[in-house]
Predict the 3D structure of the following.
Amino acid sequence: MYKQLIKDLKGDSLKPYYEGIKVYTDSLSQYLAAKVVLIRQGAQKFLVATGSGELYEDLIGYENNGFKLAFPTHENRLVLNKYFPYTAPVANTEHRTSVGLGDRLGLATPGHIRAVKDTDVFPIFAQQSVRELDMTHRKYEDVIDAASYAVFQEGYKKGFGADGDHLKTKEDILKELDLGATMITLDSSEKIDNTILDLNDEELLTKYEVLDASIRSYYEEKYLDSDVKFEGLSLSISKIQLMRDVLTYYAAISFIQEVYEEIIKPYKLPLDFEISIDETSTPTNPISHYIIAQELKDRNIIISTMAPRFIGEFQKGIDYIGDLDMFTQDIRAHVAIAEHFGYRISVHSGSDKFSIFPIVARETHGKFHVKTAGTNWLEAVEVLAEKEPALYREVHAHALDRFSDATALYHVTTNLNNIPSLHDMEDDKLPEYLKNNDARQLLHITYGYILRDQDEHGNFLLRERFFDALDDHMEDYTKHLDEHISRHLALLNLK
Ligand SMILES: O=C(O)[C@@H](O)[C@H](O)[C@H](O)C(=O)CO
């Protein structure tokens, strides 16, 4: 079966297909006397290597008449990284405008590569939060493995990043750095006291006065009743505002400093460090952002990006909800602060926020980071709705069953009553659910239950059939992603 393929591989005349074998010809690579290429036979992918030398010997696989067949394992990914460095994640050392492309299935990166390959965007192909890893029962090395193999498969050599997203503990940061993360998104939300904003002035004063005097005097000496003016931004910091910000953020600022000094600064490889304060109960006041930024500067903490929580609603998998003029004013203030202190603004939950993308591109002067993830999952669900109606109906029904559990993890304002009943939808109309915001949110936040729930015998209810179906329609999925992410990039003025 492989005889002609191996002959052509050795002879530099490789074709894209051989007797039921798809050859990813863009993956063809050579290191000294060894050649390797990625193929797919049925649903299984293999590395096929010929020749001799370290690369050939290092690949873990099965020898057979002068060639080696190797599974795309974690160990073999590390071998590819060793001999073909472009397959390993790197930091965005040129601080290029970047997009996070979270892939919960491990199948989306080929489509992402098609969307970004002719642009100057720095892509973060390996981006998953701890929440996503928990929900999908994946390890972080699986995320980097999937991205690296896709980069090898597509022959993408422009560099990509790996974001350890929404990490809250030093242990998780160290673990994901050890696994190859080139960007760390520190989520300090657990150190942010969201209750302070609900206090009235009297309650606020009472709570503030019992705060350690050294903390109070530190911030009062630096910020009390001060006016800040730069790059078109003018901020006045009143005692009330300062008391709120100190009580809300002082612990988070200390934690950021601890993480930076203990882990980020000593880390020997280039690394992007993002501060995420977007998952809070209220929008980030620009004064709060300024104080945090000034403290990071004064503590010699260097960050690449900061993710504030903007005004309006950034709900999962649907467009922005809010007043665009107010959003414009809000992001303009945050950008002025970011540019003053020398970092970029990061926009989380960027999936499908089409109405604000032109504003983001304009107000950041084209220098930003935008994160997506859910939309790449929803494109897979849309392929099922188009190609596998019976399975889609099961997925949709299970999402309805598990929706209330999912709302504990994701803030959404979904109204299930706005979602037409499955019973009333003909098969050819099922894709219309993916144009219904409430259905998009239903299908988005229940991804973990769809992928991991099992029956009483321990058999997956949907997972295996979901992946098998997607495998059968992989080119459709890849095309969906290319078109959909290209729409994101175009509106961000990146394509
Ligand atoms: O769902 C998650 O936990 C992540 O996708 C997280 O929301 C991520 O930081 C993001 O903003 C993707 O749009």
Notes: The longest strand covers residues 21-31. Residues 239-264 form the longest helix (26 residues).
